[in-house]
From TrEMBL:
Protein's name according to its UniProt entry: ABC transporter substrate-binding protein
UniProt-listed InterPro entries: NMT1/THI5 (IPR027939), SsuA/THI5 (IPR015168)
Keywords: Signal
Gene Ontology biological process terms from the UniProt entry: thiamine biosynthetic process
Keyword Amino-acid biosynthesis: no
The SsuA/THI5-like domain, residue ranges: 42-253
Signal peptide as annotated in the record: 1-24
Length: 330
């Protein structure tokens, strides 16, 4: 399945690139942090809706298997700009001083949440004493101890099981676990599974427990920003336009993804688009602006990352890993 998906991606990207060569467009390699889907729709919108072409850009998309790999590919020049969790960038900068910089906030709220069948928990504090299933590799596991601490608990207050990601939904619906840890970007998928099982879900975002931080961000190779700053500005402006299209036209956003990755389910992709919008456009966006990193929230994010990963908070000034000059003013 993954091989077929990769083949389709490559053929779709090649076709998109071929159409733009005649215009002598500037080439940009965009780095995904994971497999394509509705939560990644902005780059597909940029290509399919012509926003990148309008900006004189020819886009190639590089697949990814996590934020750490995405940062490595950007740092080594494989890719120019892409998506990564800013927490992963903070940890990488603290440990290795990688030449990668965050240029735009995407998720200004963390996507992490507890999912359970309605009636199992009334409040997020009710996770105490519950059996909780999680994927072995999700970033959520890094922050779980902090969330429990905020709730006045320790990990010993829950029974945590790490299982295959594909097993999370079935386990919850069959009662094999009380709670699962999943991202808000998958709300529609799990809600659909619950409905098929005749159940309703209750979802408790970790932001309800005080976990307020930046998450997915647009990050770029320092070499790209230094050597082709105007190309970077044009790309970021086109990408921002794509995010606004995503907000205003979820169905069109999903169609843009399916046009290049037809193996995906249009219904699932559109659901994921809708689930993702709230992590990008919300009360934080209304207050601070789209794509903005505020010093206060950035520092709070680093404080959480440092605590979660056992890093010296004084060892990194988070202001050194962002460049706000590339985001167009609202």
């Amino acid at each position: 399945m993954l091989k077929a998906l990769s083949k389709t991606l490559l053929s779709g990207f090649f076709a998109a690139s071929t159409l733009m060569v005649a215009h002598a467009a500037d080439k940009v390699v965009f780095q995904l942090d994971w497999l394509p889907g509705g939560d990644k729709s902005a780059i597909f919108i940029c290509i399919q809706q012509g926003f990148c072409a309008d900006a004189g850009l020819e886009i190639t998309i590089e697949s990814g298997r996590g934020s750490s790999e995405a940062i490595t590919k950007l740092a080594t020049g494989v890719s120019d700009i892409g998506i990564s969790g800013i927490g992963a960038l903070m940890a990488a900068r603290a440990n290795e001083d990688v030449p990668v910089t965050a240029v735009m906030s995407l998720f200004n709220k963390g996507p992490h949440a507890f999912y359970t069948v309605k009636g199992t928990m009334e409040t997020i504090e009710d996770v105490k004493g519950k059996t909780v299933a999680t994927s072995p590799f999700t970033e959520s596991n890094v922050y779980l101890p902090l969330v429990l601490m905020d709730l006045g608990m320790e990990e010993s207050d829950i029974t945590l099981n790490k299982v295959d990601p594909g097993a999370l939904g079935p386990m919850l619906m069959t009662g094999a676990t009380d709670v699962i840890i999943a991202w808000m970007t998958d709300l529609t998928r799990y809600t659909t599974q619950a409905a098929a099982a005749g159940k309703e879900l209750a979802v408790f975002p970790w932001s309800d427990a005080g976990l307020e931080l930046y998450s997915a961000s647009l990050v770029a190779s320092d070499a790209f920003l230094a050597e082709r700053p105007e190309v970077a500005r044009r790309f970021i402006a086109a990408y921002r336009r794509s995010l606004e299209f995503m907000r205003d036209n979820p169905a069109g956003a999903a169609e843009s993804v399916i046009a290049m990755v037809p193996e995906l389910s249009a219904e699932n992709v559109e659901g994921q688009v809708k689930d993702t919008i709230g992590l990008i456009f919300n009360e934080v966006t209304e207050k601070d602006g789209l794509g903005v990193f505020t010093p206060e929230r950035l520092q709070a994010t680093w404080k959480r990352v440092a605590a979660a990963q056992g890093l010296d908070e004084a060892g990194l000034d988070p202001e050194t890993l962002v460049d706000r000059s590339f985001v167009p003013e609202s």
